[in-house]
Amino acid sequence: MDKKLSSFERGDELPEEFAKFFKGKAYLNMLTTKDVSIGNVTFEPGCRNNWHIHHKGGQILLVTGGKGYYQAYGSEPLLLQEGDVVEIPAETKHWHGATSESWFCHLAIEIPAQGSSNEWLEEVNDLQYKQVEEKTHE
């Protein structure tokens, strides 16, 4: 993949403090951290993050390239592609990542809130991921 799958530069491989919550390789280009945090996140095929919760603030994903998945705990997974928007309310356990055959890019917008935090949880294991692929296969 070239460095520019979307309109934004791919950025560098995630530092270990974040990479440990991802299965596979992902890259981050922070676009701004002033007032609101917006990062361009790029996932290699098959890469996904762990289940996690954004406490108090929530998150918005703006898909800018490739194909990926989003799943809120207890809900059916969604297949995402360029132009899709996902609004994730605060306190929602969820994960997101690339399909097994495509890179996936999104802008991750952290909704500002006093005392907000992220809680990283268990990984999305290979069986769970395979089931998502089967449910969303085009």
Q: Would you mind describing this structure in some detail?
A:
The structure is a single chain. By secondary structure, the chain is mainly beta. It has one domain (12-136): Jelly Rolls, CATH 2.60.120.10. It contains 2 helices and 12 strands, in the order E-H-E-E-E-E-E-E-E-E-E-E-E-H. The strands form 3 sheets. Strands 1, 3, 4, 7, 8, 9, 10 and 11 form an 8-stranded antiparallel sheet that branches. Strands 2-5 form a two-stranded antiparallel ribbon. Strands 6-12 form a two-stranded antiparallel sheet. The longest helix is centred in the last third of the chain and has 11 residues, at 126-136. The two termini are 22 Å apart. The mean pLDDT is 94.
What's the alpha carbon Rg, rounded to whole Å? Answer: 14 Å
Largest sheet: 8 strands, antiparallel
Task: Please report the first level of CATH classification, the CATH class.
Answer: Mainly Beta
Count of the separate structural domains: 1
In short:
With 138 residues, the chain is mainly β.
Give the arrangement of secondary structure elements.
Elements: E1 12-13, H1 16-19, E2 22-23, E3 26-32, E4 37-43, E5 48-49, E6 52-55, E7 59-72, E8 78-81, E9 85-88, E10 94-98, E11 104-110, E12 117-120, H2 126-136
Antiparallel strand pairs: 1-3, 2-5, 3-4, 4-11, 6-12, 7-8, 7-9, 7-10, 7-11
List keywords for this structure.
eight-stranded antiparallel β-sheet; 2 helices; 138 residues; 11% helix; Jelly Rolls; mainly beta; two-stranded antiparallel sheet
